[in-house]
Amino acid sequence: MFPQYFHYINVFEPDHELDVVTVQAPVQQTASIQETFTININSSNTGATITFSWDEILFTVPIALQ
Question: How many other CB atoms are found less than 10 A from the CB of residue 14?
Answer without folding.
Answer: 8
